[in-house]
Please model this.
Amino acid sequence: MAASVARSQLTPLSRQITAKPSQSDQTPKCIVRFRPLNIPRRFNVTVKASINRNDEKIGGNNNKTAPALHPQSILDDDDDEEDAASKDSLNSLPRPLSSAQFSNFVSDGSRLRVAYQGVRGAYSESAAEKAYPNCEAVPCEQFDTAFEAVERWLVDRAVLPIENSLGGSIHRNYDLLLRHRLHIVGEVKFAVRHCLLANPGVKVEDLKRVLSHPQALAQCENTLTKLGLVREAVDDTAGAAKQLKDTGAVASSSAAAIYGLNILAEDIQDDCDNVTRFLMLAREPIIPGTDRPFKTSIVFSLEEGPGVLFKALAVFALRQINLTKHFYVFLNQIESRPLRNQPLRSSDDNSGYFDYLFYVDFEASMADQKAQNALRHLKEFATFLRVLGSYPIDTTIVP
Model:
């Protein structure tokens, strides 16, 4: 991808990089907007103060005028107060829930509790708030913790990522869907808009390193390469913003607001069509309907043999049931994973193979007779079949 750099004549610090697709690249161009550095004005002020000796009475006639304080000392005091206030504010943020804290977890009980993985400011938090407006979003250290929190009735729901239009599937959550007995009750599609963040006063040219989740770094590879920044991977995007010192971070604008950081550049992702699909998980399934578009997610395994997968997919094709295709086509129309805790099996020709699990999303409600017939047909030759959920399709994308 070629890039041209344009500088604003009015504001020297304002820059933008326009990524232009080649003729073979039909993805929409993405404009990286660099923000000018906001430096608060500082006035030269002379301050006089009266001092009292230990042996003098306050308000007496022996008050002496102290030398004028240097303006920089005032600014340093203000900075110390701001730093202390900032630390107090960060310490007041909820810490991610871990499995060891389950017995001590307390909720206010007034709102729906929704678990997500990460810390405050994570994209998952925004997705949870889109799925359940006015919810009590509960941060969790790991994906496993969010699953367990729902199962133990510590929270009511979980909203977790399952795939990204650029980075592909979140394999860990596919495995956890099978390990746990939660049900998919909905989905959320969230447009990811990465920002380059730094501490106040730090300019783009001052940065040497940038922190973020590995997928976020990969999604901004072209922009970060042009800026000459060394990339360092951390657990999540908002976590990178939280631990920022003398480096930059790739995270959301929400993380910048929460942790008091400056946004140096917006929309630094290489592809503007960067969408993450999240699953809404609950202890009980919802009752599927036919009044609006529904999607059904299943997982199954098959015996090894030629044409077996073709036979499995034919049960949907024969009934005109579509595998998931929307405005954004995700990568897991079919997702296959080796079946865990199963030994390598031998075939007739002495070659080894694994049993595989296939995850499939199709456009039909389990209330639809043709969907029920398709799964009955599939069950005739599948060695394992489980419905993970039948739920309404999300047709909206939050930018």
Summary: Residues 1-25, 39-79, 325-333, 342-354 have pLDDT under 50 and may be disordered. The CA atoms of residues 167 and 215 lie 6 Å apart. The two ends are 24 Å apart (CA to CA).
